[in-house]
Write a structure and sequence with these properties.
With about 750 residues, the protein is of the alpha/beta class. It contains 27 helices and 21 strands.
Length: about 750
């Protein structure tokens, strides 16, 4: 009988109860003992649900109090010195301090988990002396076994992946660090083996990236050490998000199972198996159900794939799995009552994917006419949506194809535009601005809710939004900012807001996924052809500009970010979707310009996260991503200044592409990485306007003037002072009123100090 397995389950709960508990604890409304108790209840409910659905292999230790990489770091006592950790089990004050910052210590860096929209906390190895503080996988296994009778499969971030995702050490010290960590991993595994654990899931997603010969030798050392140390423990070496590199070397490692992604790395992994076979002494974890997408799988197609695999792997050595953890999808479709029928019937969230896994495992094990009919019935919904009007708008398809075939370019190069724009704006050296959003208080959220429920009419809601704009325009002027924003009080989310105003989008009521910590997002679903329906941001921006003599930026989300932060259709390419979005946003940019708005910010914080993991595919992606951005911005007047923003990604390998976007000003996060991005500009000359975020908005702490001054001074060693802007590293939506105002005042004071030093320019 073929078994079904899941690599991980969403933490947040069907009603985001996990998020609510975290925020209640952080605000002091929940005692620590009760916090632990309620989180345990959520965790057990998640395990119980998988058990009741009939999943054979259930992951444990996939649950987290914030982030699984942070869990691994704290399990090994890898705590930055600034948190004054004295050893033992890491207390929640230190754990959450690393994630969110404290009054006296900055938070650890946060960045994207491979090419997903999940953010992990980057481990800092500098100065650390690793020691096993507690065996978290063992605790999770015992809990599932003792309280639910589940023989769980503990999940652990593998040693090579953990090292590759960490910072604070030289590459020459990699083997030394491996020598420090490997005994701790062995200790964990030996304790699991003594407990009677059958299987451990060792997550090594780094296997799908390019590895050096030295890395391959490290893998061999790691897993030979494990094989010798825990001979009776079965290790499933798990990869996901793409096909593995160096297939022959990977499958030769001394482990009992290999987990491969047959969704996002399908062609590469299948080709490798067909060409090179699969070891007869290993189990294949076949990741055939998409852990990142929301569409139902065509089970007949998946069955054919699995049957194809059984020509190379015996049925008894096959596990039908999710392609990755279900962390990346909403919990259940059951609560969605407002989606059109043909769309809802085509969707599968985490719980529905559990059903798909169980049904597929049954189908592979029991080939019969009845099973085939069941799969055929399931697949009918996948076919209906393909024939819908929304997916077959020839007018949009033909127009976008024609425009995307043209060269996208501003009429003047930046060097000439800069002079025209400087003459118009007369901005001081080091102009100050913010990224776009201001705090959305409970009052703002309540007003939006009243309006959405129909308890407020449009006039009442518009009046309220204008009151908020008035308050913050005056505050920005008082604080001393040079370029203002309207604050985005009318917007729930930077993607959802635009999707609600464009054709081709659908929105769930409860389709939340975790982005970082307790921050959950509700990605739109792009299910049809995208089209502009009318002005989306003009009214609020034009009003804000009427309230001040200083320039107000129009604020848009860029096409690549909208796409990467949405669940997208699978019947056309992502490139085609990006061009449809770009054409729609171009029309909005033109509407803003016609309304007198001559500074327009088109944010692309997610452009880097869409970069393919395979190096040979990256140049093509960047080419069409840059083209899509330029489609949005290339038709504006020379005097119109285009801004963009990017955050929380590694940008050093795409500086050239960022410059190709040809934005007049780009702002990039650099505060959590402590200025490390500046090193990229030490190696690359950047000739356009740029603002490196000088303080971290994801932490509640108020940054000191000296911190920001230091950041500014380092940046100005490698960047042209005449082109340098000063701003926070991201939007301020999630911050409180007082901390926002205080932080911005300090930022302006730091700017004044810098201006004094460069007054001669």
């Amino acid at each position: 009988m073929v078994k079904s397995g899941v690599l991980g389950y969403p933490r947040i709960g069907a009603d985001r109860e996990w998020k609510k508990l975290l925020e209640a604890f952080w605000s002091g409304k929940l005692e620590e003992a009760e916090f632990h108790r309620q989180l345990e209840e959520i965790r057990l409910n998640h395990l119980r649900k998988q058990q009741e659905k009939g999943i054979d292999i259930i992951a444990v230790n996939d649950f987290s109090y914030y982030d699984h990489v942070l869990d691994t770091a704290t399990m090994f006592g890898i705590i930055p010195k600034r948190f004054s950790f004295e050893g033992g089990v890491v207390p929640l004050s230190v754990y959450y301090g690393m994630a969110r910052g404290t009054k006296d210590a900055t938070a650890s860096e946060m960045t994207k988990w491979f090419n997903t929209n999940y953010h992990y906390i980057v481990p800092e190895l500098d100065g650390a002396s690793p020691v096993l503080t507690e065996n978290k996988p063992l605790m999770a296994y015992r809990e599932a076994s003792e309280k639910l009778g589940i023989e769980g499969r503990p999940v652990i971030v593998g040693p090579l992946t953990f090292l590759k995702l960490s910072k604070g050490y030289n590459l020459s010290d990699t083997d030394a660090w491996l020598g420090r960590l490997l005994p701790l991993y062995v200790q964990i595994l030996q304790e699991l083996e003594r407990e009677g654990v059958q299987w451990v899931q060792m997550d090594e997603p780094i296997l799908v990236t390019k590895l050096s010969a030295a890395d391959l030798q490290r893998l061999k050392t790691i897993y030979e050490t494990f094989a010798e140390s825990v001979p009776n423990l079965n290790i499933m070496l798990q990869s996901y998000f793409e096909s593995v590199e160096h297939y022959s070397d990977i499958v030769a490692l001394p482990v009992k199972g290999i987990g491969l992604d047959f969704v996002h790395g399908s062609s590469g992994n299948i080709s490798s198996i067909k060409a090179l076979g699969f070891p007869a002494d290993k189990v294949l974890g076949a990741g055939v159900i998409d852990g990142r997408g929301v569409w139902k799988s065509s089970l007949l197609v998946k069955l054919a794939l699995l049957q194809d695999l059984t020509e190379h792997v015996s049925v008894e050595r096959l596990i039908v799995q999710s392609s990755c953890s279900l962390l990346h999808v909403p919990v259940t479709i059951k609560q969605e009552t407002k989606l059109i029928t043909e769309l809802k019937d085509a969707l599968a969230f985490a719980d529905e994917k559990l059903d798909e896994l169980v049904l597929l495992a049954k189908a592979v094990s029991q080939s019969s006419a009845g099973i085939k009919e069941e799969l055929e019935e399931y697949d009918r919904a996948c076919q209906k949506i393909k024939l819908s009007y929304e997916r077959n708008r020839k007018d949009i398809q033909h127009t976008v194809t024609a425009i995307s075939s043209q060269h996208q370019e501003r009429s003047l190069p930046f060097s000439e535009r800069y002079l025209v724009q400087q003459k118009k704006w007369q901005l001081p050296i080091f102009p100050t601005t913010t990224i776009g959003s201001f705090p959305q208080s409970a009052e703002v959220r309540r007003a939006r809710q009243l309006w959405r429920k129909g308890e407020w009419n449009d006039e009442q809601y518009t009046s309220f939004i204008r009151e908020q704009i008035d308050i913050w325009i005056k505050l920005q002027e008082e604080i001393g900012l040079d370029v203002l924003v309207h604050g985005e009080f009318e917007r729930t989310d930077m993607v959802e807001f635009f999707g609600e105003k464009l054709a081709g989008f659908a929105f769930t009521q409860n389709g939340w996924v975790q982005s970082y910590g307790s921050r959950c997002v509700k990605p739109p679903i792009i299910f049809g052809d995208v089209a502009f329906k009318g002005a989306m941001t003009v009214e609020e921006t034009k009003y804000a500009q009427s309230r001040t003599e200083r320039p107000v930026k129009g604020m848009l989300t860029g096409p690549i970010t909208i796409m990467n932060w949405s669940f997208v259709r699978e019947d056309i390419t992502r490139e085609q979707i990006a061009y449809q979005l770009a054409f729609a946003l171009r029309q909005e940019v033109e509407a803003l310009e016609q309304a007198g708005i001559s500074m327009i910010q088109v944010d692309e914080p997610a452009i880097r996260e869409g970069l393919p993991l395979k190096e040979d595919e990256q140049a093509k992606y960047l080419e069409w991503a840059v083209k899509a951005f330029r489609m949005v911005t290339s038709t504006v007047l020379d005097i119109t200044q285009i801004h963009t923003h990017m955050c929380y990604c590694e940008f050093h390998d795409m500086i050239d592409s960022i410059e190709e976007m040809d934005a007049d000003v780009i702002s990039i996060e650099t505060s959590r990485s402590h200025g490390e991005l500046i090193h990229s500009f030490e190696l690359n000359t950047y000739k356009l306007g740029i603002g490196l975020g000088v303080y971290d908005i994801h932490s509640p702490r108020i940054p000191q003037i000296e911190e920001m001054t230091s950041m500014i001074e380092r940046a100005l060693r490698v960047l042209d002072p005449k082109l340098f802007w000063i701003n926070p590293d991201c939007g301020l939506k999630t911050r409180g009123f007082e901390e926002t105002v205080a932080s911005l005042r300090n930022m302006v004071e730091a700017t004044k100090i810098a201006r004094g030093k460069y007054a001669y320019l």
